[in-house]
UniProtKB/TrEMBL annotation:
This is GOLD domain-containing protein. Residues 33-148 form the GOLD domain. It is found in: Membrane. Belongs to the EMP24/GP25L family. InterPro entries: Emp24-like, GOLD_dom. Keywords: Membrane, Signal, Transmembrane, Transmembrane helix.
Length: 165
């Protein structure tokens, strides 16, 4: 039984680390919507960064490449809204647990065009900016890693209690 619990903890750690550390890139067509959901625990910090990928590197981004983003909870509460932007970011503390939706609306353009959006959404332990914690606190590398691990362990413990309920 102890071996199974240890194995489950390792799987949870790998899942937490692997799914929360990479940004995604997707294509959206003007006049259309693309939504991404994230299951977030209550009282968890969440941060997001989004930007339109420039198709012509070295040149300014075309004016036609604009999006509107709305982040809402499963209860319909709005946590972020930006209109007609090329990039942005958001951060909030989740009040209720559940699925949060980030919906990207591409501004309608004639003729229709497609462009790519890069989106990085992190919550819980992954949302903390550990490099700034290390700089501000003047802590050495070992203390920094221990604080990071302690926070990860607390998050895993909370998640296991949540799953048990």
């Amino acid at each position: 039984m102890k071996l199974q619990t240890s194995f489950l903890c390792i799987i949870v750690i790998i899942a937490l680390v692997s799914t929360t550390t990479q940004s995604i890139r997707f294509e959206i067509e003007s006049g259309h919507t693309k939504c991404i959901a994230e299951d977030i625990k209550s009282n968890s910090m969440t941060v997001g960064h989004y930007s339109i990928v420039n198709p012509n590197e070295g040149h300014p981004l075309p004016e036609s490449h604009r999006i509107t983003l709305r982040v809402t909870s499963s209860y319909g509460n709005s946590y972020h809204s930006s209109e007609n932007v090329q990039s942005g970011q958001f951060a909030f503390q989740a009040v209720e647990a559940g699925d949060y939706m980030a919906c990207f609306f591409a501004i309608d353009h004639q003729p229709p065009l497609k462009f790519q959006v890069e989106f990085d959404w992190r919550s819980g332990v992954a949302a903390k900016d550990w490099s700034n914690v290390a700089k501000k606190g003047s802590v050495d590398a070992m203390e920094y890693e221990l604080k990071k691990l302690a926070d990860t362990i607390t998050s895993i413990h909370d998640e296991m209690l949540y799953l048990r309920d």
